[in-house]
Amino acid sequence: MKMKLCIIYGGVSTEHEVSVWSTKSICDNIDKDKYKIKKAFISKEGIWYDEHSNEIENVMAYLKQFDVIFPMLHGLYGEDGTIQGLFEMINVPYVGCKVLSSSICMDKGYANLIFDQYGISQCKYIYAKKYKTSEYLYFDENNIEHNLDIDELIEITIKKIKKFPMFVKPSNSGSSVGITKVYQKEDLKKAILYALKFDNKILIEEGIIGREVEIAILGSNETGYEVSTVGEIISAEDFYTYSAKYENEKSKVIIPAKIDKKVLKEIQMMAEKAFKAVDGSGLARIDFFIQEGTNKVYLNEINTMPGFTNISMYPSLMMDYGYTYSEIIDKLIELAIKSK
């Protein structure tokens, strides 16, 4: 008897199109002899539709009919614990990280605070929250609260991070949306205000000169973890922007990355440690920097529902590990069922 599977895609986030592309790849590769598949589409306005384009009026009742759900949703309201909480309420198994780990990893600032506590190497950063007023809330290294205007925030940033380039990004976003690479102090204010269009919390990070690499992880505390080799991104642009990822054919991905075996082992161990630190389960793509000259490794971020397009890093890494595309889907669904 086929398992009843619902793939949810689209969504209201800035990564709506990536979700659509990823879902097409999944549907093209899934073993249709194993699953009775239905799709639920969420419009950019947040309206749910079934596969016949009929509006779903009672979402909870609709989803309860399935044996398992695959939420191929990225970004806000899809990868941030929100929809995962819905699945928990209706008691239906679902692919991917649970509520806590999803919400932590979506908010990169809070994730950084947890990684600090676990002693995981990260670049220097400033994490600040914008009030409705002109003030920003910032906690320093001694957990002392500061209420700052934007010019004071910039001065603290210069004092802590010290050198350019820097990256200014919304704390809650994905696919490099809302990020600016800044080369001089005079451009920080503009970059901060741009990031605030996407979130009221921002990160200002030290720019690491070196290589950008990514790794895939599959599993849970109960089943153990499978950690892939490392893939390297060669961006066709100044950094790996949304357009560089999905629109610029000159961007390249190299699997496996040509790195020292000792560095590879360090990245694999750090990836598993970071995933455990946020109580991760199911899957994630974990991104790192390798600093030029020193080979020092820095954790960048964890993506709890990475892209699944035909050019996406996660399925490519797991296929290099030894799975076929359809076997990756089978494994993720198996993990979802076991987690209940």
Explain this structure:
- The protein has eleven helices and 15 strands.
- It folds into three domains: 3-95, Rossmann fold (3-Layer(aba) Sandwich), CATH 3.40.50.20; 124-206, Dna Ligase, domain 1; 209-338, D-amino Acid Aminotransferase, Chain A, domain 1, CATH 3.30.470.20.
- Strand 6 (136-139) and strand 7 (145-148) form a beta hairpin.
- The protein is globular.
- The protein has helices at 16-29, 59-63, 82-90, 99-106, 108-117, 150-161, 188-195, 242-246, 261-277, 313-321, 325-338, and strands at residues 3-10, 35-42, 48-49, 68-71, 125-130, 136-139, 145-148, 166-170, 180-182, 201-206, 210-220, 224-234, 252-254, 282-291, 297-303.
- The model has no long low-confidence stretch (mean pLDDT 92).
